[in-house]
Amino acid sequence: MEEQEKKYTYFASDFHLGVPNREISLEREKKIVSWLNEIEKNASAIYLVGDIFDFWFEYKHAIPKGFIRLQAKIIELTDKGIPVHFFLGNHDMWMFDYFKTELGVQIHSDEIEIELNGKLFYIAHGDGLGPGDKGYKLIKKIFRNRICQWAFARLHPNFGIALASYFSKTSRISTGAEDAVLQNLDKEWLYQFTKSAEVTKHRDFYIFGHRHLPLKFEIGQTYYFNLGEWLNFCTFGRFDGEIFEILQWKNDQIQPFKTISE
Known about the structure:
The protein is of the alpha/beta class. The chain contains eight helices and twelve strands. It has one domain (3-256): 4-Layer Sandwich (Purple Acid Phosphatase, chain A, domain 2), CATH 3.60.21. The strands form two sheets. It has a seven-stranded mixed beta sheet with strand order 4-3-2-1-10-11-12. Strands 5-6-7-9-8 form a five-stranded mixed beta sheet, with helices on one face.
């Protein structure tokens, strides 16, 4: 098969659009759109695996202002018949039906299992999986609760969005204090989750975001990949039907990238 005819499945996560300020977020958004412009030439599907926005909440008649370039590009992709999948992350879990109705994307509120070219994939944002992090798991249940969502929706958008944006701007991601360091594997919860999941059922690939590190681990007969993020690394995953690899968008080009775990 000639190279220009070859199709790929693409994966990316953790754009965190909205932080630390409008100017830097807009620059990142333009970079993401330029990447999408490039990969649409040979994309069979695109999976955006959570935390696309640092905050997102859909009111019945209002959504957060901004991010229009990304939305316009996604509409262009779906209008061309390229499936785009959105996963809810811990920062944008309050995404409901706007992207499905207006942009034509497929929304996944939890993990999914799919088969691509005979290879079995387990895909999830990754928040709350594995041992540990009990405090966040409790918070996630509260935030996913429909009563909690209903209560937040009662706030006027001018106040509700401003309040959430304030807390977003004080997060470790916004202030630059994100601890992007590989921990002891006993404390890498997604690594531990993959090991445990493989005991009950084999998958060929486990694909996660959330961790903010571009990772690759071979665990028995399976591979755990973390997609990294777009605040520093600008990394993404690409599957050609046989091989899954982590690559980088740099200087308006797709370039090789050596994962931190290698």
